[in-house]
Write a structure and sequence with these properties.
The structure holds 2 protein chains of 2 kinds.
Chain A: H1 3-21, H2 29-40, H3 44-48, H4 57-93
Helix pairs in contact in A: 2-4
Chain B: H1 2-5, H2 10-15, H3 20-43, H4 49-67, H5 75-95, H6 101-139, H7 143-171, H8 185-205, H9 208-230, H10 238-259, H11 263-286, H12 291-296, H13 318-327, E1 330-335, H14 337-342, H15 345-357, E2 361-366, H16 376-383, E3 391-393, H17 394-397, E4 406-410, H18 419-422, E5 441-446, E6 466-470, H19 473-486
Parallel strand pairs in B: 1-2, 1-4, 2-3, 4-5, 5-6
Classes of the chains: A mainly alpha, B alpha/beta.
Chain lengths: 94, 487
């Protein structure tokens, strides 16, 4: 894809992100952080694309390690965020 | 619009299967981005937060499944990697104590950064395999752009990794939490950064065989920068550092997205970068300091703030505290990092319930930077089932502080230090605090007599109305609660 298009997407996403998160109550700061942390594990997509057949040993190994690390980030991040938010939720139900 | 939909990807180009499959994958990426956007939006509101997290995880699932549709992937290793990673992630996330949450978030964050770094590295291996000409022809890429974004990916990813690991070590007290400075540190870091820029130039100028070791050097430099960047930052500033590293992990993913020309990486990485950035700014504002000041001042490593304080700290027995609390009609509990260290949140909640049963009005005043990550105290008190209505933010609790009978400071230090209001010479002057010193009586729970994490003397402890309760916060609070029970 054209480089300027990628930069365009990036710029729009940055403004969107700033708008989305501008007003978050402080009790949600930790879940927001660990939840967005899980999203940053999206790099797993890049990692998956490195674990290919026939591109040489080096890429394969690097990609595999990246998949493991990114999966820890993604799965761990979502589970721990859910655990936290479950505690918050109890209050509302009472 | 069509141009937007048809992303070119190295693998897609190499495997030569343009057409429906690739379009399908790109559309799935758009759907996944929408899930992320809604997920983050919902995460920002208390009643939808949990569903928001779910929505965002579905977005992630869509992105992963779509990616697996690319041909040429080695599924055996991919599945093995995912199983191993998921097992580690689930176990860590389920086992961790709520008090250790900042460490775990830092650790996960570091893994994400390292993964992005590896994505950049793998792409460079790919370039090495194809040669620049072949690679650029396949990806319709641009030489300088590719070099810059790979360099950025390695740089940001590396800093995120070692920076987070160092934050983890500091938070879990495996190394000293205070700021560690050495002579010429700033010059050393500046030198590292300069070397980094020089390496980029070299990567662009040198032939591929000689540029490859330079790329490896960039990785090494990035890892060093992460270590030496976080080393001089003290434990009390960790909420800022963790937010910033969180932002970096997103930016690293976005940079990796540029490297492999993948839109979903760019969009979601950028969203995370923005959210981390906002949290960073909020945390800095809560301390009335600039980001540059937090990062480069080596705060707390010097003893400039330990001005002479008149008076002495007066200790009180738990019985004394009990009698005062027993008579109190309104109590404000101010928790800090000490409560997390002592894991006293359940005991604190029990005491709070006892005080209420005794007819007192109980509130928990939470400073934005209390603890070691944004919202740290909220998480702990939520774990202990403290009703949400009893949690008060700094701005709402300060105006009524003068009517409060007892301010119970549990392991908080700088966030209640009146020097921030009174003493222009004090390093934290200007930082908004919870004005515990205005309460009629103050009880401060503290492990020992030393200065806090920041190394500052807390004037609150020397006030006439303040009494110190030394010892383990959990033991002290439990004992107090027990006395109410036995009454």
């Amino acid at each position: 894809m054209d480089i300027t298009q990628l930069l365009f997407i990036f710029t729009l996403a940055a403004f969107l992100g700033l708008e989305l998160i501008a007003k978050v109550p402080s009790q949600l700061h930790t879940p927001l952080m660990s939840g967005s942390n899980a999203i940053s594990g999206i790099t797993i997509v890049g990692a998956l694309l490195a674990v290919t057949n026939g591109e040489g040993q080096a890429i394969h190994i690097i990609g595999f390690i990246a998949v493991v690390l990114a999966t820890v980030n993604v799965v761990g991040g979502y589970v721990v965020t859910d655990r936290m938010l479950a505690m918050f939720k109890k209050k509302g139900d009472k | 619009m069509n141009a937007l939909l048809s992303s070119t990807n190295a693998i897609a180009a190499m495997s030569g299967i343009f057409g429906l499959n690739i379009k399908l994958i790109d559309i799935a990426y758009i759907v996944s981005s929408i899930f992320f956007i809604f997920g983050i939006k919902m995460l920002g509101k208390a009643d939808t937060a949990r569903r928001g997290n779910m929505v965002s995880s579905i977005g992630m699932l869509i992105a992963v499944v779509a990616t697996l549709l690319y041909s040429g992937l080695d599924y055996t290793w991919i599945i093995a990697g995912i199983i191993i990673g998921a097992a580690i992630g689930v176990v860590a996330a389920k086992m961790v104590k709520m008090t250790s949450m900042p460490e775990l978030v830092a650790l996960f964050n570091g893994f994400g950064g390292l993964a992005s770094l590896l994505v950049g590295w793998a792409e460079y291996e790919r370039i090495k395999g194809f040669g620049w000409e072949g690679y650029l022809a396949h990806t319709q890429g641009e030489f300088y752009f590719s070099n810059i974004v790979i360099w950025l990916t390695l740089w940001i990813g590396g800093i995120t990794f070692t920076g987070s690991i160092l934050a983890y070590l500091k938070l879990s007290a495996k190394i000293s939490g205070s700021a560690i400075c050495f002579k010429g540190q700033k010059a050393f870091n500046a030198l590292l950064a300069l070397a980094m820029v020089a390496a980029l130039v070299a990567m662009c100028m040198l032939p591929l065989e000689t540029a490859y070791p330079v790329m490896i050097a960039v990785i090494a430099l990035a890892l060093l920068l992460g270590i030496f960047g976080v080393l001089p930052i003290g434990g009390g500033d960790m909420p800022v550092v963790i937010s910033l590293l969180n932002s970096f992990s997103g930016l690293a993913a976005a940079a990796a997205g540029f490297t492999i020309a993948n839109t979903v990486l760019i969009v979601s990485g950028c969203l995370v970068g923005a959210s981390g950035f906002i949290l960073t700014i909020i945390m800095c504002k809560a301390m009335n300091r600039t980001l540059a000041n937090v990062l480069f001042s080596g705060f707390g490593a010097t003893d400039e703030g330990s001005a002479k304080v008149e008076g002495e700290m007066k200790a009180a027995s738990i019985e004394d505290a009990y009698y005062v609390l027993e008579a109190a009609r309104s109590v404000v509990i101010i928790p800090g990092y000490g409560m997390a260290v002592a894991q006293a949140q359940h005991a604190v909640k029990e005491l709070g319930t006892m005080l209420e049963a005794n007819g007192a009005e109980v509130r928990y005043a939470i400073h934005p930077v209390a603890g070691r990550m944004p919202g740290h105290m909220n998480v702990l008190l939520a774990e202990a089932d403290v009703p949400y209505e009893q949690l008060a933010e700094m701005d709402s609790v300060n105006p009524m502080m003068e009517m409060v009978d007892v301010a119970l400071v549990i392991g908080a230090n700088d966030v209640v230090n009146p020097a921030a209001v009174e003493d222009p010479g004090c390093p934290i002057y200007g930082m908004p605090i919870i004005e515990a010193y205005k309460a009629r009586t103050v009880f401060a729970l503290k492990r020992g007599k030393g200065a806090g994490f920041s190394g500052l003397v807390n004037k609150l402890y020397f006030l006439e109305k303040t009494r110190m309760l030394y010892g383990d916060a959990k033991a002290t609070v439990s004992e107090l609660a027990g006395m109410f029970k036995d009454k």
